[in-house]
Amino acid sequence: MIFWRIIRRGRRPRRSAPTGPETERLRAQAKAALPARVRELAAAFGFDFNGRVTIRNNVSNWGSCSSKGNINLNLNLMCLPEDLRDYVILHELCHLRYFNHGPEFHALLESVCPDHRAKHRALREYRLG
What is the mean pLDDT of residues 41-66? Predict the structure, then answer.
């Protein structure tokens, strides 16, 4: 029965993001550049963004959007080409209107980033963790 509980709970060891001087350098760059870029893209594409932009060192995603309208971005975005950074930001801004990946979300993403499919494929060439 103990074996079943371990599997049932699905406890897996968490991966932790590396830290050090390089990470802190990326964090400083990200804090200086990304919040301003989020606001710039939000204004350019008509998104009503009044939330916070938080910089994180995630090991599993490039960005996320909360139901409160806050956007979390991975500090490792600073290692990507600018067009892929913008794609991630636009993707998260689209989640301010649609909190899913349904047809309406994809139509909105297509309208603000017509080559989003190619950028999504290009982003997969970069790995986190």
Answer: 95
pLDDT in tens, 92-104: 999 999 999 999 9
Delineate the domains of the chain, giving CATH numbers in brackets.
21-123 (3.30.2010.10)
pTM beyond 0.70: the answer is: yes
**Beta bridge pairs of residue 53:** 71
Q: Structure tokens of 74?
A: 């991975």
Contacts of 39 (CB under 8 A, 6+ apart): 49
C-alpha–C-alpha distance, residues 94 and 111, integer Å: 10
**C-alpha Rg value of the chain to the nearest Å:** 17
In contact, 84 and 123? CB cutoff 8 Å? yes
Specify the amino acid at residue 80: L
Note the Cα 56 to chain centre separation in Å. 10
